[in-house]
Each structure stands twice: as C-alpha cells, then as structure tokens.
Design a protein that fits this description.
By secondary structure, the protein is α/β, with parallel strands linked by helices. The protein is built from 15 helices and 12 strands.
Length: 363
C-alpha cells in the first residue's frame, strides 16, 4: 500500500511525514521545502502478530508495511506546471490513496502560502488542480475512444461514460464522487485519474485544538466536507506526533496516557487507511516466521495464497484456518485442531480479518 501525503506548502506535511516514518525528511518554514518526494516505509502495528510471536518464538518477524510518500507542496496553477506542479502530479499518480493535509490552526509565526488560514479553501485549491489535470487526461482518452468507435460500435457505451464523467469534472467535482455502476467504475479506474483516488483529510491542529477537536470549528468544517464526498477525516497534531517520537520508546505510552490518547497518530492513520481502501490482514505463523499479509476485503483463499507465492495459488488445495481469538484461547494450534476449531476451507472461501492460515498446495 502506497499513500501520498499532499497539501499546500507549509501546512505540516513534512513534519507529519517525519513523525510517522521517522525518516528525517527536511521540514522548514518556507514553500517548496520538499522538492523530490521523500519515501518512508513503516511497519503496521499489529498486536495479533506480537501474540503469535510469543507463541512460536520465530526466527523471523515480518509485519505488513505501508509506504508513505511526502510529495512536493502544490499551488494554484500546478495543473499548468506552476511551482512544482508537473512533478507533484506525476508523483501522486503512483499512489493508492491520498493523505491530504491541511492546516487547522492560527499561528502568525508560520507562513501560509495564501496569507491566511482557511482549510476548505486549501482543499478546494488542490482539488481543482487535480480536476484540471484529470480533464486533460480524460480528453485524450475520449479522443482515442472516438477513433476506436469509427471501427467498432462497441465503444459507444465507453464514450458515453467518459462524456458524462467529463461533464462531472467540469462542474468541479472529483471523479471519485461520480455515480456509476461497478463495471463502469472499473473502466474509469483504468484511466488512472488523480481525483478517482480515495482521500483521507488529515486536519493538522495545534495542541489546544487537537485536545478538543470535536468542538474545533476548522476541524468540523473539514469533517463535514469529508462526509459529504465519502472521504475519511483524521484529526492530528503533527507537532505533537513529532514530540512523541522524540521521547524514549519506554516513555511514549505514559505520555499518550497523560494526553488522554490511546494510540499514536500513525496507528490511527493506518486504521483509517485500511478502512478507506477496504483492506484486511491474515496471519501465518510457525517456528521459522510469523507474518501479516495485507489483502483486499472479499479476497478468496487461492488469491490470498498467491500473495505468498504464485505456486500457492496455482496449486491450491485448501486453506486450514482458525480465527486469531480462538487460537489464542486454545494456546496452540494443536489444541485448536483437537477442539475442531481449525477449518478446512476450499477455493470459494472468502478470507476474514485475523484468520491464521496454513495453505495446502501441490504444484
């Protein structure tokens, strides 16, 4: 999973990136501090994997990972190449989802590229630039489809779909908000439009605003916008996350408790990301390795096995599954088998979050 962190210059993107990845990207109080995208790969915290490791004492511990990309700040005119627009647009096209950071606090010592703080205006600036870029991309696809239509009438439905989507974009609405049938959505996805990517709006608050974000006016505006377009919203304080990172690991839990926070911003961001993208994790365990595997919700057993190796999918016989909670209650896979809790699942089985699996295959 690859998440692109975007936003106007100076809204806290790089500070947040540093805090969640500990990658040490430069963060400074001037526009275009980030020129080339910084990339950080972080492990997905999963207490279930920790418990499996306690059970098996494996030689190797492999959690799921997420790649975060801190992309250069965007300005008005980016779709026409203003600022670092071309680079920005190329980088964002490669990610699975967007973490859109906007500033939700006043501070005269921190420059805002537009001279004042207005998170909804910031959202609109970036959305419009992405929509304008998508209109150019879609126009090229429409031209190509129109040429194909001259030789084969089957392309008429596709052309009609793209024409309707073009009108939608002209109304300054993102492609992800375009209402269509599942098979039509698959066609739109093939165009790889920027505004078709799912979005998490990360409302960057100061410490006071974060402490009472439910009553924070700026946050509420962002939350309402996210709800209206079916996106996710995450209240976060980038500076606070950085302060937590600066503490020794053994002191971080107590510091979070003092703040009344149960988990770090990274953990909350990962949970929102999984929910947004419809992802779950299944687990494998043994003396050699315990590992978490990320798959889309609704994935069937053979395709999930293919995440481990293509031979597992090609020669799939069955998946021996037990829920994590049942395994922990039994204390071992042997006891779980004796109690009949290990299920033998075939090709049509839809994987569940937290399944602990042993695949049987023959190639």
């Amino acid at each position: 999973m690859k998440m692109g962190i975007v936003g106007l210059p100076n809204v806290g993107k790089s500070t947040l990136f540093n805090a969640i990845t500990n990658a040490g990207a430069e963060a400074a109080n001037y526009p275009f501090c980030t020129i080339d995208p910084n990339i950080g790969v972080v492990s997905v915290p999963d207490e279930r994997l920790d418990r499996l490791a306690e059970m098996y004492h494996p030689e190797k511990y492999t959690p799921a990972v997420i790649e975060f990309v801190d992309i250069a700040g965007l300005v008005k005119g980016a779709s026409k190449g203003e600022g670092l627009g071309n680079k920005f647009l190329a980088n964002i096209r490669e990610v699975d989802a967007i973490v859109h950071v906007m500033r939700c606090f006043e501070d005269d010592s921190v420059i805002h590229v537009d001279g004042s703080v207005d998170p909804l205006r910031d959202i609109d600036v970036i959305n419009l630039e992405l929509i304008l870029a998508d209109m150019e991309t879609l126009e090229r696809r429409i031209d190509r489809t129109a040429k194909l239509l001259k030789g084969d009438k089957k392309y008429q439905a596709e052309l009609d779909l793209f024409t309707a989507l073009q009108k939608h974009l002209e109304d300054e609405k993102p492609a992800r908000a375009f209402v269509c049938a599942p098979d039509e959505r698959a066609i739109i996805t093939s165009v790889n439009l920027l505004t078709d990517k799912p979005v998490i709006y990360a409302a960057n608050l100061d410490e006071d605003g974060f402490a009472d974000y439910v009553n924070n006016e700026m946050y509420q505006k962002v939350a309402a916008r996210a709800k209206a377009e079916g996106s996710e919203v995450l209240p976060i304080c980038a500076k606070l996350e950085q302060d937590i990172l600066d503490l020794p690991p053994e002191e971080r839990g107590e510091f979070l408790k003092e703040l009344g926070i149960t988990e770090s911003g990274l953990s909350r961001l990962i949970k929102v990301s999984y929910r947004l993208l419809g992802l779950i994790s299944y687990l494998t365990g043994g003396p050699k390795e315990v590992r978490a595997w990320t798959i889309e919700r609704g994935t069937r057993a053979p395709q999930a096995a293919g995440k481990i190796h293509t031979d597992f999918e090609r020669g799939f016989i069955r998946a021996e599954c037990v829920s994590f909670d049942e395994l922990m209650a039994c204390g071992s896979m042997t006891v779980a088998r004796e109690k009949g809790l290990v299920r033998s699942e075939g090709r049509d089985y839809v994987m569940r979050d937290g399944d602990v699996v042993l695949y049987r295959f023959n190639v």
